[in-house]
Design goal:
385 residues, alpha/beta, de novo design (two linked rop proteins), Rossmann fold, 2 domains, 8-stranded mixed beta sheet, globular
């Protein structure tokens, strides 16, 4: 397997290339080292996709190296150095876990990722609180990153993940920039996401206004949050969740879709299933991913459930300002999905931003240039809220 460009690391293997790019996208936030990722990719290229253990072994090997360095630094009291290595270990473990089917190995890798992420966050980012959001007799795990240089009540973003991502990533790639601009962030693992899925068995649901309401009520009670300036935001699969929440939980002041989702999720999942059978290298999604987040073991049952995940008859109920962002070269969710969502919105306060290859940010959820995408969102929030 030859190596390609920075964006398409493994030519002909979009599954590996896209996952690698997601990890590389954390570089601006001091959470990975590009040189280490290059070494991982060199070893993966030598082993090839035919080795079923190559992916998780190579990413976890680099993660373990950083974890050991972090533990040693922590023991010596060198907390900032320890935090840096912990964050890198967390991202590498989480990347390695991505294609491991549900089971003990996957869970074991995730637990290592979570430990390292949290040890890193505690040392590197003192303005993050580890919080629990009450939800249907349980709680959803989240991080609250406080706005900087701000007193009193501040604008706040409630941020839900995508299908493959986690709050540990979003609190950094979005929360850090928002905090600099005087905006709080609640980065939360909702049903079917991150820690809520893996450790608490809280599965995805189509009526995401339920966790969306729980998140709003949690932040609105805080003395440092302006309850009239709370924005709902989601990325990737969250491009469905955020507008669904905005449609039915009207207390949110605005909605941000960092990437739209397919308008017809059932058709999309059907195509993915066929693609996985024909050539799994061309898919960004594992064959187990969608049914796993739903808590199902049957792909046919998951396909049937996918029919519920639609914004038809929902998008036109949104009354607050909406920002839809997408990449012109998005190969996970084609840009047509963003145009369909924008057209379905009836609120007069709507904005569509499509990033081109020339300006950057043209890949899925601007993962090729995350700072550009997040700065655009922050500017929009400042102008519209």
């Amino acid at each position: 397997m030859s190596q390609g460009s920075w964006i398409d690391q493994f030519p002909g293997n979009f599954m590996w290339s896209n996952a690698t790019l997601v990890c590389k996208g954390m570089a601006p936030y001091g959470a990975v080292a590009i040189g280490e990722i290059d070494r991982i990719c060199e070893r993966l290229a030598a082993r090839g996709m035919g080795d079923p253990d190559a992916w998780w072994q190579e990413w976890c090997s680099m993660a373990e190296k950083n974890e050991k360095l972090a533990d040693a630094a922590a023991f010596d009291g060198r907390d900032f150095t320890a935090g840096e290595h912990y964050l890198r270990a967390g991202n590498y473990y989480y990347t390695g876990e991505r294609f491991v089917p549900p089971g003990e190995r996957k869970l074991g890798i995730y637990k290592k990722a979570l430990r390292c992420y949290q040890e890193g966050l505690k040392r590197r980012h003192k303005n993050i609180e580890f919080v629990e959001v009450p939800y249907e007799g349980m709680t959803l795990p989240a991080y609250f990153m406080k706005a900087q240089n701000t007193t009193g009540r501040a604008t706040t973003v409630v941020l839900f993940d995508g299908m493959d991502n986690c709050k540990e990533m979003s609190v950094l790639f979005a929360g850090l920039e928002f905090a600099r601009r005087g905006i709080n962030t609640l980065a939360i693992d909702g049903p079917g996401q991150g820690e809520a899925l893996r450790l608490r068995k809280i599965y995805a649901r189509h009526d995401y206004e339920v966790p969306g309401k729980a998140a709003y009520e949690f932040v609105a009670k805080r003395a440092d949050v302006d309850p009239k300036k709370v924005i709902i935001m989601g990325y990737s699969f969250g491009g469905y969740y955020a507008p669904r929440i905005a449609a039915f939980e009207r207390r949110y002041a605005a909605c941000v879709c960092l990437g739209a989702l397919h308008w017809d999720l059932h058709a999309w999942q059907s195509r993915i299933n066929e693609q996985l059978k024909a050539d799994p290298k061309k898919s960004a999604q594992s064959n187990f991913q969608f049914q796993w987040i739903l808590g199902l073991n049957d792909s046919d049952a998951a396909l049937e459930r996918a029919k519920q995940f639609s914004l038809a008859g929902v998008a036109d109920k949104i009354t607050c300002p909406v920002l839809v962002m997408h990449g012109a070269n998005d190969r996970v969710v084609p840009v047509e999905a963003a145009h369909k969502l924008y057209a379905a919105l009836t609120t007069p306060r709507k904005t569509l931003k499509v990033f081109t290859p020339e300006e950057g940010g043209a890949e899925h959820c601007q993962v090729d240039n995350r700072p550009l995408g997040i700065s655009t969102i922050a500017d929009w929030i400042s102008a519209n809220i």
